[in-house]
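Lecture 7 notes: from sequence to structure.

We start with a single chain of 260 residues. Read the sequence below before looking at the structure.
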Amino acid sequence: MINFGKRTGRVIILKRSVLSILAGTLVLCMMFYIIGGAPFAGAEAATRELPIYCVQRDNKQVALTFDAAWGNEDTQLLIDILGRYKVKATFFVVADWVKKYPESVKALHDAGHEVMNHSSTHAHFSRLTADEIISDVNNCNDKIEAVTGVRPILFRPPFGEYDDHVIKTLNGMGMYTIQWDVDSLDWKGISASEITNRVTGKVRAGSIILFHNAAIHTPEALPGIIEWLLKNGYSPVKVSELIYRDNYTIDHTGKQIPTN
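Now the structure, written as tokens:
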């Protein structure tokens, strides 16, 4: 007579043993992935092409930047405010804006501010081919140079979007790609006090601060921000004066660091 109870017990034990072996194998595979795969992922991240978000500076220099792509209501007011404090800034402008407001581009240049490239039509650059990027950037550079007599060397990607393909193409053109590490969020229409608190709460030596030329509360917030910066030992300069032109690396956070 067959004892089915004992046989069933053995089958159950065998199944549990197989499951234990499978589970152990899965754990080993996961450990291999974590231990062996992580360095590969890190190496991949280390080679990622990045723009300049901020700069390693010990002298508390910072850069005020303004993007100009659409409206023009407050450009002269911003020039007047910056002039009152003898502060120079960097304006990243779109070619269509240059074409529409050449007098404002000239006024910015004549006031000592630098006018740099923000693309021709504010397109999504990651969707463009290398040839399309080169054509777009050169078109904007041509229009700015025609008004100011100075060919831009700085570029800010529309929407802040980029990938390795975009950065490599711009590097090949001799352009420095500039992002920011302090976003005022003025484009959201937040109040002047909120703009001020965001900027003063996040700024540090080497920061690049983002504003927009047509944001509703930026002119109201700007004087207080500049006064706070000056009072706390910061020196606002143009981006071209803040960054290093050569002998530098860019770390994983986008900080530009001198190598000599």
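The first helix runs from residue 4 to 46. Keep this in mind for problem set 3.
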